[in-house]
Design goal:
The protein is mainly beta. The protein is built from 1 helix and 17 strands. Strand 3 and strand 4 form a beta hairpin.
């Protein structure tokens, strides 16, 4: 979705033991299907179907060059598959949606295996209601995080949720400001880390290691997707606009 190396270098999300922590989606879907993890939404927002073909334009991190290309968004039950073709490169990933917010994790190539994303809605009381997905699994996972210490998005949280296998879990989450985004560190039996970008009252957190990038999109009234993208520890973010054909 960005110039070949520009995004892959920055797009990383921490240690990706996707089956080791509370978020365990696993590659149980067919190739090309995305996987997700849904997070409990206090008041589920109405989501408009975003599947379809798009023309994209964007800017790499630090303003390091513009790019353009195409994007295909495919509905995969609880999640979406995102497939980009830009500057002669292909990228593929999994996305989840809550209302007008969309979070996506992706990798270079024709599949996003190993990449996952969590999209949180930030409540007025500071709680986080999230939805997550993993590439290769069409089911979703849900999580609620209640802040016990901190202000704004930063702080410590008690988390509870249900993974894609229908198993309940509880644990802890710590969120800290880092660069252009935030680091998310979970412990619900085993540690897991991610890096997220905030956009309004949503934050998209990417998981999956240094091969995975992530995007936080906002759906506009005309169906256009306005996005910010990056990777673990990014000091700045890239931007992308996707207009439906």
């Amino acid at each position: 979705m960005k110039h070949a190396s520009a995004i892959i270098c920055v797009a990383i999300l921490i240690t990706a033991a996707l089956g080791c922590s509370q978020f365990k989606g696993g590659d149980t879907g067919t190739t090309g299907n995305t996987t997700t993890t849904t997070a409990a939404a206090a008041s589920p927002a109405i989501s408009q179907d975003i599947s379809g073909a798009y023309d994209i334009t964007g800017m790499n991190e630090n303003g390091a060059g513009a790019y353009k290309g195409t994007l295909m968004v495919t509905n995969r039950e609880d999640v979406y598959q995102f497939s980009w073709d830009t500057a002669g490169k292909k990228y593929d990933g999994v996305g989840v949606q809550t209302g007008d917010g969309i979070g996506v994790a992706f990798a270079e190539g024709d599949n996003g295996k190993g990449c996952g994303v969590v999209l949180y809605k930030i409540g007025s009381d500071g709680s986080l209601n999230g939805k997550a997905g993993y590439w290769g699994n069409n089911s979703s996972e849900t999580e609620t995080a209640k802040r016990t210490k901190g202000t704004d998005l930063e702080g410590d949280y008690d988390v509870s949720g249900t993974n894609t296998a229908g198993q309940d879990y509880t644990g802890k989450l710590s969120v800290k400001k880092a660069g252009a985004g935030y680091t998310f560190s979970w412990n619900a039996g085993s540690p897991l880390e991610g890096f997220g970008i905030r956009q309004g009252d949503t934050v998209a957190v990417g998981i999956g290691g240094n091969k995975c990038g992530f995007v936080s999109y906002e759906r506009k009234s005309d169906g256009t997707l306005e996005g910010k993208w990056g990777g673990y520890g990014s000091r700045s973010v890239g931007t992308e606009t996707a207009k439906k054909k």
